[in-house]
C-alpha cells in the first residue's frame, strides 16, 4: 500500500490509467458490435464476434481484478483457488454439453387421472 504522498500519487495515476483503458475497452466493444467495418468473420453476429467480445471482456475483468481488487499483491493460494473455480466451471459446462448431446429417453412416465383407466404415455422424440 502507499505510505508516502509520492506513492499515493503514483497509485492515483495507475488507477486513472486503468480507468481510461477500461473506458476504451468498452468503446472498442461497442464499436466492434455496431460498426460493420470492424465486423470479424461472416457478416452479422457469429462465433468470431463472440470470441472477440469475450476476449475484450476477459482483459477488462483481469485488469479490474488485478488492480482495483489488489489481487496482484495476493499470495499464491488465491491464484490456486481462482484456478480451481475456473476449472470447476469448465467441467460443469462440459457436463452440461454432454447431457445436451446425449439425452436420456425414458418411457416409464405416464399421465392419467388417478382412479381412471385411461393412461396416456408421453410421446418421445
TrEMBL record:
- Lineage, top-rank taxon, reads Bacteria
As for membrane topology, the entry says: Multi-pass membrane protein
Span-the-membrane segments of this chain are: 17-38, 50-71, 78-99
Location(s), subcellular: Cell membrane
Key words of the record: Cell membrane, Membrane, Transmembrane, Transmembrane helix
What name appears for this protein in its UniProt entry? Cytochrome C oxidase subunit IV family protein
What is the taxonomic lineage of the source species?
A: Bacteria, Pseudomonadati, Verrucomicrobiota, Verrucomicrobiia, Verrucomicrobiales
